[in-house]
Amino acid sequence: MSEMSSNIILVILVTSFATYLSRFLGVVSSEKIDAKSKIFRWFNCIAYSILAALIARIVIFPAGVLEEADLWLRLIVIIISIIIFIISKKNLVYPTVLSAILLTLLNNYL
Amino acid sequence: MINSKYFFQGFKSVKSFDSPAFALGASFIAIGALLKDIGFNLEQSIFSTFLTYALPGSLVMAESFLVGASLINIFLAVWLVNARLYPMTVSLMPLLLHKSQPRWKYYLSCHFIAVSAWLIMKSNYQSIEKKYRIDFWMGIGTGTWSIAIVSTIIGFLVSDYLNKDMMIGLAIVNPVYFACMMVGAMKSLQINLSIILGAILGPLFFFVSPEWSILYGGVLAGTLAYFVGEFK
Questions:
Q1: Among A8, A27, A81, whose Cβ lies nearest the Cβ of B110?
Q2: Are the C-beta atoms of B155 and A54 separated by less than 8 Å?
Q3: Which residues in chain A have Cβ-Cβ distances shorter than 8 Å to B117?
Q4: Most buried of the four, B17, B31, B116, B154, by CB within 10 Å?
């Protein structure tokens, strides 16, 4: 095995360990937490907030290729997609398929 | 050992009307293409999604690897971005715990905790008898995880045929999908406030600390929402 590929394997192992750690500690803590308790509701709020914060950050301060589309284009596509999601009675396929097509076209022609 | 009726009911929920399959697929096609781009071979790309299966962590790994970050740096960066999995696990597992079920199921299936599977389980658990929720969850997890792995392979194989604009189009699918699922989850004052405040405070804290913005913004927003909801 070359040095490059053993390096990649190590990177993957480190990444998966760093990821599994939070899940594992979460299960350990869960053993003592009742689903009706206040602490459960508090963690529930935090979980939703962190997800919302993550999504907002991906859209507003993206890393990677998304940076190359203008901020207002990204925001327009997100808003239109949410409107489609609501009108289509919570169908996830329409907004996601259309968002990819819409951003590709807008970024190409604007 | 695993109740197959509930397992397959969960497994099949990934292809329902509000199916995440396309969004999840598109997101991991982008990951497959990205991993090929930074020099991973096919086996390594599969291995990566197989073992990590949490999208933001894979993105951080790819970026860090590209700039030649050390293993310690990669560990910290990934741990930070995936630390959200801790509150996600704590707010999911108590709903699935049942004393008749063996513990290994929980420690094994927590690997499936990622935004898509978590949100599907959160919106469906009430319809499943508590004793069998863990089997239903393992079905959802296996379903979404399989889509992720297959899509990583597709992304790796088709990446040569994707141009820049198509890659940008694929990259928006993931946040659009997450945003729609969050809007769908807005059913109580506490959750609505958590989501709205999180979306505002997360980006604001970016100006304080880019690395910590999600955790700082998320914990503060969630705590505020919790107190408003409890004491209104």
A1: A27
A2: no
A3: none
A4: B116
